[in-house]
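Sequence decides. Our protein:
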Amino acid sequence: MKRVFEIMFFPIVTIVILTSGSNGNNISGVPDYYSQLVQREDTTELIRLVQVDSFKLAVIAPSSGVQFYKDGIVFLSMSKYESKMSPKHISFGSAEAYYATIEDSFPGRHNIFAPSSSFSYPCEAMTFSRDYSTIYFTKIPGKEKKEKIFMAKSTTNLKNQNEWISERNPLDFCTDNSTYTHPALSSDEKMLIFASDKEGSLGGMDLFISTIADEKWSAPLNLGKIINTHGNEFFPFLDSDNNLFFSSDGLPGYGGYDIFTCKFNGVDWNKPVNLSDHINSGNDDIAFTINRMDGKTAFFTRRQKSGQGDMQLFRVTLKQEAGYYNLLTISYIFDGKPIPKTSLITAGTVPDVKVPETTVNLKEIPKIEAVKTEPMESSSYARIVIIKPTIPTPVEQKDVVIYRVQFLTSSRPRVNNEIIVGGKSYKIFEYFYLGAYRYTIGEFRTLSPAIELQRICRQTGYPQAFVAAFKNNTRSLDLILFK
């Protein structure tokens, strides 16, 4: 059922504070309606927001999917299909990891992922640090039969080629004869979630977590019965806000393995939510991974329920209705956004579909002389009524519009305040929006020079750059400003 919150602005000012309800759905500027889409049998609205298309790339063993790397993806392919770029040390027809840019429905330019040494390990079972200098990956060491997790560092060799130098031994906790696979590194690089059948598992494979301190990984802890079942939990992935995505055949779903997500609440993870039948099917749906740079593209693999059939790779993108204003991410739509402590919505009526987050300038809030609280119909919400506010006299101001180019989104603030693009140094402007830090450059009174800077950014390592408008130093989504 859609919820509509009416916020009146009369002699009494009413501010609605949305807090977590009993169903665990929490919002930041967007009504509860969106976060419950995936829990409904009717996925019509979800289909309007998210596009799912097959991707023309064969998934070959031992991989079950792909992983995002820089501005593209890493995948396994047979060298006979990539013969023009195969190094001499790879025999004809061997499996090897390649890196490629992403076109509409197929991979673009290909490069060998590790040109100085063979890298034939499952690509969905790897995870990178934020700067892509460190990789955690899965392999079967030596004569052992069980997978273990290793770490490697990126360096440049004498031929100016990227080279991965791997540790000889697996991570600290991979000490017994259990399987350790599918590592997922948190955005702050302090947590590692992985799948294992080690002692303490509730079923076949469970998800465990380890934290790092003094360059050593702690003894793993089971993520518990909320996430793990008597079945199998595989393919964990952490987005830029540490929301967890994984596949399970023990939770209620549509097929063998379904893909689920759990919100990270700052301490641990909430109850899993099924990604709906728009993503999941009657077969096995596995290896879900999101581009953590912008959160707007994802991949997953579908295989026959038997686990021995052909595998098809799918690409997930936001449709124009969801992504045009840069309001939503794939994690947000599938109930993956972190829980905000409170979200303030200013005067006006909140519609039941697609509402941008509202920024409140605390300096403009009138002085409060008395406060009382009143219960609402639902126990999930509280209404605070501010009585007899002192309203300042409005001062008429002329709107000032500035165009900047947004080139980066990050869950953590940047240290540097300048950047060089196209040989020119630009001051970086930061603003916080929808739970992430957004970074822009340029300061133009007209649209044309901003579009030109956008073009330069996209050609020099920032393919997701776009023009953003600021009215009176506040981000504006008014389409008239772009005409």
Summary: Confidence is low (pLDDT under 50) at residues 1-42, 338-391. The chain has two domains: 46-333, 401-482. The first helix runs from residue 32 to 35. The helical segments are 32-35, 44-49, 320-323, 330-333, 447-459.
